[in-house]
Structure formats: structure tokens, C-alpha cells
Automatic annotation (TrEMBL):
GO terms for molecular function: ATP binding; ATP hydrolysis activity. This is Peptide/nickel transport system ATP-binding protein. SUPFAM superfamilies: P-loop containing nucleoside triphosphate hydrolases. It comes from the Bacteria. It comes from Asanoa hainanensis. The keyword Nucleotide-binding applies. Pfam families: ABC_tran, oligo_HPY. Keywords: ATP-binding, Nucleotide-binding, Transport. InterPro entries: AAA+_ATPase (IPR003593), ABC_transporter-like_ATP-bd (IPR003439), ABC_transporter-like_CS (IPR017871), Oligopep_ABC_C (IPR013563), P-loop_NTPase (IPR027417). GO terms for biological process: peptide transport. Residues 3-250 form the ABC transporter domain.
């Protein structure tokens, strides 16, 4: 088992009070598994990804445990996590490619990164060049400045760097969202290839793009308002979703070849609740077409079929 997350609770401290961004999240990612994490903006996807690798100083670990290969990660202790970052858990944060220092050549950036982790650039360079070639980048990119590379090239550089130490888990947060469609597909395929080659064992692909994650993920986990709504193999989530929220998310996707003069695109009416003072019971209740009395109680996240978990009183009934 690569990753096990149990009852993870994380909040942000703000002047207005605590935002409970993750509220009792439990799941596992198996060896070799790519898991897509989807949901509307603000549901806690990025917080989940970040909290497994680096809590920023506004985030507070409220409770719950994370283990990788059975070893607990000290996620609440930034310094203790240094031993695990990059080697055991690695992250490509949102907007990483735009964050590359524009005044440093790529090779220099890599040398700085390796130095910070006590590794020699000279000794690592042959493997680095091999992996760059694998993603279609020539050795000469090491002499380039970030501004000289396209978005897709920068994203591939970031992917190679974040997996150089073959981490058990890679969190890829919106790695394709600023790219054109064909580059998106190429970068997504690279994620799969890195998993297939064993450069990374398990992956959390955080995205709002269900169609893209459907093509590469083994499993999709749907989040709503800081909790898990549904988790199942990708094709099950897309073709037979059980949670009303997942059904509406999938129903809001445009169909290939659809004529929009005949079928209008619809979103999900309403907005997710604020997480400073979230409602009791099922958090989707106010927007749910199937809501009934029982939804005033929080539904447990339970297995309703093999590898298929849902948090809804109506699912499976
Ligand atoms: N630095 C912060 N301070 C306070 N609240 C925050 C902060 N970052 C995120 N939040 C809140 O935490 C909740 C979860 O946010 P998060 O960014 O994890 O969601 P997300 O699903 O990744 O959204 P997006 O797709 O827009 O990135 C939201 O209610 C958000 O407003």
C-alpha cells in the first residue's frame, strides 16, 4: 500500500475564524495507482494535495494520520517532513511552471534544488538528461532560461525535477490547466509513462478537468465542501455515478458532437457552502434534488459495491 490517509482534518487560520478545508478525509492509494481528485473550486482538492507534502504557515493540521508504505508522515512538522519531501512524497504545485526563477538557467535551478537535498548535480546529470530525453526535451534545455521554453516544455521540466528521486507519491496539482488541448494530453500521458516506468509509484492528480483525468486515472475521488463524496474506478464514476453531486458534475460536461442549439449546457444550481461555518448533515443537501429528512444527518462514506464508496443516504438504496 503506497498511501493511507485516515480522518485527515486541516484548517486555515484567518482573521474571520478557522476555515475547515478538510474535514475527516480517509482513503488509500495503492501501488501503481493514479487517482484523480475532482470537484468544484473551493472543495479542498489543493488543500488535500498540499497537506500530504507541505502545510503552508496558514494551514493547521487538526487531526488524522498519513502513512506511506506503512511509515507515518510527520505532516504537522515542517522540519521533520524535510526527510520525506522529494524522496517519499513530492508535489508539483499549482502554477509551478510560472514560478520557475526567470533569472536562472534551468540547469542552475536543478543544481540549486539538488544541492538543497544534499545531492550532486554532476552525479545526477546523466539520469536527468535521460529523463529529459524521455519527455522529448534535449539536453540543451538545461542551458535555457524559463522564458525560452513553452508552457508544455516547462511543465515537463517540472515533472522531471519533482520525480528525480523516484518518490512513492506524486501530487500533481492542476498541471495541465494552463496548457492548450494537445499539450495537455501530452503532459497527461507523461504522467502515465512515469508511473509505468516506476519513477513514481502512486499519484494524486488534482484537477477540475474530469474529462482529462478520466483518460489517465485508475480511480476518481470526488470532493465536496471539504469531504469525500464518492470514490470509484474512473469508468464507474463517469458512467454510473451514484452520488447526486457526481451525477450533476458529469451531467454538466459537454458531450462530443452535441449541438448546443438543441441541448443547452447546464451547471449545478447554487454554490458550495462556506467552510468557516459549514452546515450540519450532508453538505450538499441545499443543492441536492434528492434531499430528504435523513440528510440532516451526515451520511457516512461507505462501500456500496467493490471499490466504490459513496457518502449519500440515497446511494445504493
Ligand atoms: N490561504 C487560505 N486562507 C484561508 N482559506 C483558504 C486558503 N486557501 C484555501 N482556503 C479555503 O479552503 C477551502 C478549500 O480550498 P482549496 O484551494 O483547497 O480548494 P480547491 O478545490 O483546490 O479549489 P481550486 O480548484 O479553486 O483551487 C476553500 O473554502 C478556500 O476558500
Amino acid at each position: 500500500m503506497t498511501l493511507q490517509v485516515d480522518d485527515l482534518r486541516v484548517c486555515y487560520r484567518t482573521l474571520m475564524g478557522e476555515v475547515r478545508a478538510l474535514d475527516g478525509v480517509s482513503f488509500t492509494v495503492a501501488d501503481g495507482e493514479i487517482m484523480g481528485v475532482v470537484g468544484e473550486s473551493g472543495c479542498g482538492k489543493s488543500t488535500l494535495g498540499k497537506s500530504l507534502v507541505r502545510l503552508d504557515n496558514r494551514m493547521k493540521h487538526v487531526g488524522g494520520t498519513v502513512t506511506v508504505d506503512g511509515e507515518p508522515l510527520p505532516i504537522a512538522d515542517d522540519r521533520a517532513m524535510n526527510r520525506f519531501r522529494f524522496t517519499s512524497v513530492s508535489i508539483i504545485p499549482q502554477y509551478a511552471m510560472s514560478a520557475l526563477n526567470p533569472t536562472r538557467r534551468i540547469g542552475r535551478l536543478v543544481a540549486d534544488l539538488l544541492d538543497a537535498h544534499g545531492m550532486s548535480y554532476a552525479a545526477t546529470r546523466p539520469e536527468l538528461v535521460r529523463r529529459l530525453a524521455l519527455v522529448g526535451l534535449p539536453e540543451t534545455v538545461l542551458d535555457s532560461y524559463p522564458i525560452e521554453l513553452s508552457g508544455g516544455m516547462k511543465q515537463r521540466v517540472v515533472l522531471v525535477l519533482s520525480t528525480l528521486r523516484d518518490p512513492a507519491l506524486l501530487v500533481a496539482d492542476e498541471v495541465t490547466s494552463a496548457l492548450d488541448v494537445s499539450t495537455q494530453r501530452a503532459v497527461a500521458q507523461t504522467l502515465v509513462e512515469f508511473r509505468d516506468r516506476g519513477y513514481v509509484r502512486g499519484m494524486l492528480v488534482v484537477t477540475h478537468d474530469i474529462s482529462l483525468v478520466y483518460q489517465i486515472a485508475d480511480t476518481i475521488m470526488v470532493m465536496y465542501a471539504g469531504r469525500l463524496a464518492e470514490k470509484a474506478p474512473s469508468d464507474v464514476v463517469v458512467t454510473e455515478p451514484l452520488h447526486p453531486y457526481t451525477q450533476l458534475l458529469i451531467g454538466a460536461l459537454p458531450e462530443v458532437g452535441a449541438r448546443f442549439s438543441e441541448r443547452r449546457l447546464t451547471g449545478i444550481p447554487g454554490r458550495p457552502p462556506g467552510l468557516r461555518n459549514p452546515p450540519q448533515g450532508c453538505r450538499f443537501r441545499a443543492r441536492c434534488p434528492l434531499a430528504f429528512d435523513k440528510c440532516a444527518e451526515q451520511p457516512p462514506f461507505v462501500e456500496v459495491a467493490e471499490n466504490h464508496q459513496v457518502a449519500c443516504w440515497k446511494a445504493g438504496s
